[in-house]
């Protein structure tokens, strides 16, 4: 099994980063503005990237200000069955975010493209949490 790992350092408290990863407002600014999100274990978040299907992520674990874990239950076939986690740790008002997208069946060109896009996701998350200009996926699609 393959896995993508990305890290970023955000000059903001973990409470703000956690909120950005678990709310419609936050994820609407950094991922897609067409979504249905609820910060509740077991809830199925829905994300629409204008690709003809919804990406659905079941919330597996929420540890306030520390960890968010999703399981992909619907999306591109390479994503279905994968997991995505965000581990947060804060020191001196800087939050380290470690993103892992794991249980990929194989290393493909789509996997490589997703690795790039997860890095861009963390870049937008940093901008949003540090009060810089950000925009959702639809406005940055390249």
UniProtKB/TrEMBL annotation:
Database matches in InterPro entries: ASHA1/2-like_C, START-like_dom_sf
Annotated transmembrane regions: none
CDD domains: SRPBCC_CalC_Aha1-like
Record-annotated Activator of Hsp90 ATPase homologue 1/2-like C-terminal domain positions: 11-129
Protein origin, superkingdom: Bacteria
Pfam family name, one: AHSA1
UniProt family annotation: Belongs to the AHA1 family.
Descriptive protein name: ATPase
Organism this protein belongs to: Sphingobacterium haloxyli
Source taxonomy: Bacteria, Pseudomonadati, Bacteroidota, Sphingobacteriia, Sphingobacteriales
